[in-house]
């Protein structure tokens, strides 16, 4: 009996240990399952933003402008069923571009229901959705799957439009419809983002660069405080961070409605860091501070104007949140002392990412430095190869023989963009394989700087020598076509025409990544640099134009004097040539011709001209070390 009892006790202990192990295993598996589900929802959210950003670019390709942040028809104020009161969101205008053609056809045509007749483009976006049913049909692409509040708020939207970094009347009408000259001049100072109410904005207006300027971000449908009637908000946005009683808050928060494009419902500003509260001022909802937010941790997904989708951490440098915002002079603001129109953003890197044309001195590295590398990124390796500016993960820091450019603001830039004192901006260290970021068009080019030719490199070929080692060729790779044709220039000046198949697989991959990336970067920079040239000519800054766009290594001192005289005399012709080139690029109706003799180890020459209009005067330019210059042949300008 004693032996039997011992055996039973042992078996009971084994069963207990087995049950504990099973419980621990199930707990671990459930945690992993939850993480994977969260990861999948985050990727779906990113894909939604990617789809919306591409839809916006397709809209621009069709209509030569971005959709208005809020627009539509003028009526609908006193009689909501008669029109939408210039309040329709960009999501409505974009419907046919993100696979919602049926909804678009219902909205863009007259609609009858229950004895009511609605005009094309529908009634006011806050009109009863049970009576005007298209407003009840929110597209699924406008909802983040992690934001469960969309289940109870059937019209709410998870994504918001970039309204810039200004506050005073940032969400108001431009004044064109009402022919209000005072409002027109006021809102010109405060509509600094890519979207605004009743304002047309084009890609060519994004002088800061599409890869540095935001289109969209996330905003939680509910949960974050939105204070109301805050006095002095435009002079001190940090007032939105205070503690407020229930009667000082909007009970329904943002009160998001997908078809309502007004600031509180569908906009955000790059003022307070992501995840911060929001507030409307005592001047009304058009003067507000609306913050981006999400359910994905400490940060938000954002879409840039070139359709890249990234995750921005809430620790991003957002400058001094107590600084006055940019706006018109005190006589137009009722005495509020704001920063003068045209000022650079006082809200750090975050603020600079929200403005489209303020020329803040930030680099792509500074934008990359605020990306959280631990967040899921749906960008594929193939896309990363096509565009070196896409970095799915943070590169591991390795020693570099050359000092890497700083990825955070220099102390000397503090007057223009003051970093937050209590937030550390992370830096990204460059690896030897990384190249320096291209110079921004708003960064003045030093005419005395001579582009330095990099040393030639030994390239391994696919063929073998007699001793079995890879054959090598020394020189510079100066081009790589989409078909895999490679042009290599030797130190003796000889040109070799090869293919990617002639190289080892490792060197072939490096050639594709480096040279296609350089070409794409050059083409992406071209419209902004041409637009900057037009601005210099329009302002009659001829010396600055010649200094910037005629490289000293390509012209003699005598030629530059002759060029200066010709530029001042032919100002109108040059502006026309530049604008024709911009128009062709904006329309996608252009070709860039590069010949073998134009390629060098430092850059390439190209002719930019319309693909369909043979009569258009071609624009001859040369791309050298991150900047475009006007080509000069035989002393002609």
TrEMBL record:
Domain DUF1559: 37-318
InterPro entries to which the protein is assigned, alphabetical: DUF1559
Pfam families (UniProt xref): SBP_bac_10 (PF07596)
Compositional bias annotation for Pro residues: 394-408
Segments of this protein annotated with the region Disordered: 274-294, 315-351, 369-470
Protein name: DUF1559 domain-containing protein
Species in which this protein is naturally found: Roseiconus lacunae
């Amino acid at each position: 009996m004693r032996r039997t009892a011992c055996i039973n006790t042992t078996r009971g202990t084994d069963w207990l240990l087995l049950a504990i192990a099973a419980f621990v295993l199930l707990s671990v598996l459930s945690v992993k399952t939850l993480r994977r589900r969260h990861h999948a929802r985050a990727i779906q959210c990113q894909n939604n933003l990617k789809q919306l950003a591409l839809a916006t670019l397709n809209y621009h390709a069709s209509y030569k402008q971005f959709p208005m942040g809020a627009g539509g028809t003028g009526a609908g104020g006193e009689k909501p069923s008669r029109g939408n009161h210039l309040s329709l969101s960009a999501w409505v205008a974009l419907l046919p571009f993100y696979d919602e053609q049926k909804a678009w056809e219902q909205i863009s045509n007259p609609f009858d229901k229950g004895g009511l007749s609605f005009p094309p483009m529908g009634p006011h976006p806050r009109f009863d959705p049970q009576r005007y049913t298209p407003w009840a049909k929110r597209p699924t692409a406008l909802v983040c799957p992690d934001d469960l509040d969309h289940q109870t708020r059937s019209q709410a939207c998870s994504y918001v439009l970039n309204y810039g970094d200004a506050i005073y009347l940032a969400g108001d009408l431009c004044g064109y419809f009402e022919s209000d000259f005072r409002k027109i001049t006021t809102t010109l100072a405060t509509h600094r983002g890519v979207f605004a109410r009743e304002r047309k904005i084009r890609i060519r207006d994004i002088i800061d660069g599409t890869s540095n300027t935001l289109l969209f971000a996330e905003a939680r449908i509910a949960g974050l405080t939105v204070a109301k009637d805050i006095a002095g908000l435009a002079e001190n946005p940090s007032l939105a961070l205070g503690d407020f009683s229930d009667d000082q808050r909007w009970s329904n928060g943002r009160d998001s409605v997908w078809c309502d494009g007004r600031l509180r419902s569908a906009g955000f500003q790059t003022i307070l860091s992501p995840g911060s509260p929001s507030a409307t001022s005592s001047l009304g909802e058009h003067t507000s501070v609306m913050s981006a937010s999400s359910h994905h941790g400490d940060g938000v997904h954002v879409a840039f104007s070139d359709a890249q989708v990234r995750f921005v951490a809430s620790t991003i440098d957002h400058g001094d949140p107590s600084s006055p915002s940019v706006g018109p002079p005190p006589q137009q603001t009722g005495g509020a002392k704001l920063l003068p129109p045209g000022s650079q953003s006082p809200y750090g890197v975050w603020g600079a990412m929200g403005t489209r044309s303020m020329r803040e001195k930030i680099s792509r590295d500074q934008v990359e430095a605020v990306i959280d590398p631990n967040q899921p990124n749906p960008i594929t390796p193939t896309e990363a190869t096509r565009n070196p500016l896409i970095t799915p993960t943070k590169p591991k820091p390795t020693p570099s023989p050359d000092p890497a450019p700083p990825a955070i603001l220099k102390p000397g830039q503090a007057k223009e963009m003051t970093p937050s004192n209590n937030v550390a901006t992370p830096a990204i260290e460059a690896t030897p394989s990384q190249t320096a970021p291209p110079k921004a068009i708003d960064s003045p080019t030093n005419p005395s700087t001579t582009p330095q030719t990099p040393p030639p490199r030994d390239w391994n070929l696919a063929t073998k020598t007699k001793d079995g080692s890879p054959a090598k060729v020394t020189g510079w790779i100066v081009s790589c076509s989409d078909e895999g044709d490679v042009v290599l220039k030797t130190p003796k000046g000889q040109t070799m025409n090869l293919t990617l198949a002639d190289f080892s697989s490792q060197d072939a991959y490096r050639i594709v990544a480096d040279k296609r990336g350089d070409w794409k970067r050059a083409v992406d920079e071209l419209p902004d640099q041409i637009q900057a040239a037009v601005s210099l000519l329009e302002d009659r800054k001829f010396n600055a134009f010649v200094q910037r766009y005629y490289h000293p290594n390509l012209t003699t001192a005598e030629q530059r004097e002759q060029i200066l005289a010709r530029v001042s005399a032919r100002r109108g012709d040059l502006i026309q040539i530049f604008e024709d080139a911009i128009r062709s690029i904006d329309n996608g109706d252009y070709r860039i011709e590069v010949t073998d003799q134009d390629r060098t180890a430092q850059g390439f020459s190209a002719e930019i001209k319309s693909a369909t209009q043979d009569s258009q005067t071609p624009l001859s330019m040369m791309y050298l070390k991150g900047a475009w210059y006007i080509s000069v042949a035989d002393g002609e300008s």
